[in-house]
Design brief:
Length: about 80
Amino acid sequence: MTAITPAFGRSAEGIPFDVALARVLGLVAEKLGVEDTPLTACVGRVIAAPFEACLDLRGFVQSAMDGYAVCCADLMAGAYLG
């Protein structure tokens, strides 16, 4: 009985990422189109271009939620940790 190797008959070194990506993308029949969609209808969709938010959500300091950690030995007397 023959054992199946982890590389399935290929060399154990594998192939470079760029080569693998080109092979996978080469299997795609055609590129998907781009369409404008209202934000409320975007659930489950994939964005077609990079996007940068124009504002931070929770536009105020909320240290109880941001997870600050402080080493007591590093504190100076009267330090404000806001």
